[in-house]
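BUG: 3D viewer hangs when loading the predicted structure for this chain

Environment: internal workstation, default settings.
Expected: structure renders.
Actual: progress bar stalls at 90%.

Input used:
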Amino acid sequence: QLRGWKVHRASNPEDVLEYVGLVAIGLGVSKVVRSDQEVFRDLSVDAALQSRGISVTAIARDEGHSRELLREEIIAAGLGITGADYAVAETGSVVVLPRRGLSRLVSLVPPVHLALVRPQDLVGTLDDVFLLRRLDYYRNSGDMGSYLNFITGPSRTADIEQTLVVGVHGPKEVHLVLLG
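C-alpha coordinates produced before the viewer hung:
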Protein backbone atom coordinates (compact mmCIF):
# COMPACT_ATOMS: atom_id res chain seq x y z
CA GLN A 1 0.00 0.00 0.00
CA LEU A 2 1.21 3.45 -0.92
CA ARG A 3 -0.59 6.47 0.54
CA GLY A 4 -3.58 4.25 1.25
CA TRP A 5 -3.82 2.88 -2.31
CA LYS A 6 -4.40 -0.84 -2.65
CA VAL A 7 -2.01 -1.46 -5.52
CA HIS A 8 -2.29 -4.35 -7.98
CA ARG A 9 0.20 -4.88 -10.79
CA ALA A 10 -1.55 -6.60 -13.69
CA SER A 11 0.53 -8.70 -16.06
CA ASN A 12 -2.02 -8.66 -18.90
CA PRO A 13 -5.51 -7.35 -19.80
CA GLU A 14 -7.22 -10.49 -18.50
CA ASP A 15 -5.58 -9.95 -15.10
CA VAL A 16 -6.89 -6.36 -15.04
CA LEU A 17 -10.44 -7.50 -15.78
CA GLU A 18 -10.23 -10.29 -13.20
CA TYR A 19 -9.01 -7.88 -10.51
CA VAL A 20 -11.68 -5.29 -11.31
CA GLY A 21 -14.33 -8.02 -11.15
CA LEU A 22 -13.02 -9.35 -7.84
CA VAL A 23 -13.01 -5.86 -6.31
CA ALA A 24 -16.59 -5.21 -7.42
CA ILE A 25 -17.80 -8.64 -6.22
CA GLY A 26 -15.88 -8.28 -2.97
CA LEU A 27 -17.58 -4.95 -2.31
CA GLY A 28 -20.97 -6.41 -3.13
CA VAL A 29 -21.75 -3.56 -5.53
CA SER A 30 -24.50 -3.82 -8.10
CA LYS A 31 -23.73 -0.50 -9.86
CA VAL A 32 -20.45 0.81 -11.22
CA VAL A 33 -19.75 4.09 -13.00
CA ARG A 34 -16.72 4.76 -15.12
CA SER A 35 -15.20 7.71 -16.91
CA ASP A 36 -15.04 7.90 -20.69
CA GLN A 37 -11.27 7.67 -21.23
CA GLU A 38 -9.01 6.00 -23.77
CA VAL A 39 -8.00 3.16 -21.42
CA PHE A 40 -11.55 1.76 -21.65
CA ARG A 41 -11.23 1.35 -25.42
CA ASP A 42 -8.37 -1.08 -24.78
CA LEU A 43 -10.02 -2.97 -21.88
CA SER A 44 -13.54 -4.41 -21.96
CA VAL A 45 -14.29 -3.51 -18.34
CA ASP A 46 -18.01 -3.09 -19.04
CA ALA A 47 -18.43 -6.61 -20.46
CA ALA A 48 -16.35 -8.18 -17.66
CA LEU A 49 -18.52 -6.57 -14.97
CA GLN A 50 -21.82 -7.10 -16.77
CA SER A 51 -21.03 -10.81 -17.12
CA ARG A 52 -20.97 -10.87 -13.30
CA GLY A 53 -24.39 -9.21 -13.07
CA ILE A 54 -23.06 -5.73 -12.30
CA SER A 55 -24.50 -2.74 -14.14
CA VAL A 56 -21.97 -0.29 -15.63
CA THR A 57 -22.63 3.27 -16.75
CA ALA A 58 -20.07 5.21 -18.75
CA ILE A 59 -20.43 8.80 -17.62
CA ALA A 60 -20.54 10.76 -20.85
CA ARG A 61 -23.17 13.37 -21.60
CA ASP A 62 -25.05 12.92 -24.83
CA GLU A 63 -28.62 13.31 -26.05
CA GLY A 64 -29.81 10.29 -24.07
CA HIS A 65 -28.16 11.19 -20.77
CA SER A 66 -28.87 14.48 -19.02
CA ARG A 67 -26.48 15.88 -16.41
CA GLU A 68 -29.05 15.14 -13.69
CA LEU A 69 -29.49 11.51 -14.78
CA LEU A 70 -25.72 10.96 -14.81
CA ARG A 71 -25.38 12.50 -11.33
CA GLU A 72 -28.04 10.11 -10.04
CA GLU A 73 -26.09 7.18 -11.55
CA ILE A 74 -22.88 8.35 -9.86
CA ILE A 75 -24.58 8.78 -6.48
CA ALA A 76 -26.11 5.29 -6.69
CA ALA A 77 -22.81 3.61 -7.63
CA GLY A 78 -20.70 1.65 -5.17
CA LEU A 79 -17.57 1.86 -7.32
CA GLY A 80 -16.16 4.54 -9.63
CA ILE A 81 -13.48 3.57 -12.16
CA THR A 82 -11.25 6.04 -13.98
CA GLY A 83 -8.11 6.03 -16.03
CA ALA A 84 -5.18 8.28 -15.16
CA ASP A 85 -3.51 10.96 -17.19
CA TYR A 86 -0.47 10.71 -14.93
CA ALA A 87 0.56 8.59 -11.96
CA VAL A 88 3.28 10.26 -9.88
CA ALA A 89 5.76 7.87 -8.24
CA GLU A 90 7.15 10.57 -5.91
CA THR A 91 3.82 11.26 -4.19
CA GLY A 92 1.71 8.18 -4.94
CA SER A 93 -0.79 10.41 -6.74
CA VAL A 94 -3.04 9.85 -9.71
CA VAL A 95 -3.74 12.93 -11.83
CA VAL A 96 -6.91 13.26 -13.91
CA LEU A 97 -7.23 16.16 -16.37
CA PRO A 98 -10.48 17.89 -17.30
CA ARG A 99 -12.00 17.20 -20.70
CA ARG A 100 -15.28 16.50 -22.41
CA GLY A 101 -16.80 13.20 -21.30
CA LEU A 102 -14.91 13.08 -18.03
CA SER A 103 -16.66 13.85 -14.76
CA ARG A 104 -14.43 14.16 -11.72
CA LEU A 105 -17.44 13.01 -9.68
CA VAL A 106 -16.66 9.43 -10.80
CA SER A 107 -13.53 9.52 -8.62
CA LEU A 108 -15.08 11.55 -5.79
CA VAL A 109 -18.63 10.40 -5.06
CA PRO A 110 -18.72 6.56 -4.96
CA PRO A 111 -17.34 5.10 -1.71
CA VAL A 112 -14.62 3.25 -3.64
CA HIS A 113 -12.46 4.53 -6.50
CA LEU A 114 -10.38 2.32 -8.81
CA ALA A 115 -7.79 3.93 -11.11
CA LEU A 116 -6.35 2.14 -14.15
CA VAL A 117 -2.78 3.29 -14.86
CA ARG A 118 -1.00 2.50 -18.13
CA PRO A 119 2.84 2.37 -18.25
CA GLN A 120 2.98 5.50 -20.44
CA ASP A 121 1.08 7.45 -17.76
CA LEU A 122 3.77 6.96 -15.09
CA VAL A 123 6.04 9.90 -14.24
CA GLY A 124 8.67 10.23 -11.55
CA THR A 125 7.91 13.57 -9.92
CA LEU A 126 5.44 16.41 -9.65
CA ASP A 127 7.95 18.52 -11.58
CA ASP A 128 7.49 16.08 -14.49
CA VAL A 129 3.71 16.60 -14.40
CA PHE A 130 4.08 20.38 -14.45
CA LEU A 131 6.64 20.24 -17.26
CA LEU A 132 4.32 18.08 -19.37
CA ARG A 133 1.38 20.39 -18.61
CA ARG A 134 3.48 23.42 -19.62
CA LEU A 135 4.35 21.69 -22.93
CA ASP A 136 0.64 20.99 -23.52
CA TYR A 137 -0.10 24.65 -22.78
CA TYR A 138 2.24 25.76 -25.57
CA ARG A 139 1.05 23.05 -27.98
CA ASN A 140 -2.61 23.97 -27.42
CA SER A 141 -2.27 27.73 -27.91
CA GLY A 142 -2.50 28.59 -24.23
CA ASP A 143 -5.33 26.25 -23.27
CA MET A 144 -4.59 23.57 -20.71
CA GLY A 145 -7.93 23.15 -18.97
CA SER A 146 -9.42 24.60 -15.85
CA TYR A 147 -8.08 22.28 -13.14
CA LEU A 148 -5.96 19.24 -12.28
CA ASN A 149 -7.47 16.56 -10.06
CA PHE A 150 -4.73 15.07 -7.83
CA ILE A 151 -5.82 11.91 -6.02
CA THR A 152 -3.43 10.78 -3.30
CA GLY A 153 -5.14 7.92 -1.52
CA PRO A 154 -8.51 7.85 0.19
CA SER A 155 -10.20 11.07 1.25
CA ARG A 156 -9.10 12.22 4.69
CA THR A 157 -9.52 15.23 6.92
CA ALA A 158 -8.67 16.26 10.45
CA ASP A 159 -10.86 19.39 10.51
CA ILE A 160 -12.83 18.40 13.59
CA GLU A 161 -10.81 18.39 16.82
CA GLN A 162 -7.69 17.31 14.87
CA THR A 163 -9.07 13.76 14.62
CA LEU A 164 -8.26 12.02 11.34
CA VAL A 165 -11.39 10.82 9.55
CA VAL A 166 -11.28 8.89 6.25
CA GLY A 167 -13.92 9.14 3.53
CA VAL A 168 -15.71 12.36 4.47
CA HIS A 169 -15.08 14.30 1.25
CA GLY A 170 -14.58 11.38 -1.13
CA PRO A 171 -13.92 7.65 -1.30
CA LYS A 172 -12.94 5.67 1.79
CA GLU A 173 -11.09 3.07 -0.26
CA VAL A 174 -8.93 3.42 -3.38
CA HIS A 175 -7.41 0.84 -5.72
CA LEU A 176 -4.67 1.45 -8.27
CA VAL A 177 -4.16 -1.09 -11.05
CA LEU A 178 -0.83 -0.80 -12.87
CA LEU A 179 -1.16 -2.24 -16.37
CA GLY A 180 1.70 -4.16 -17.92
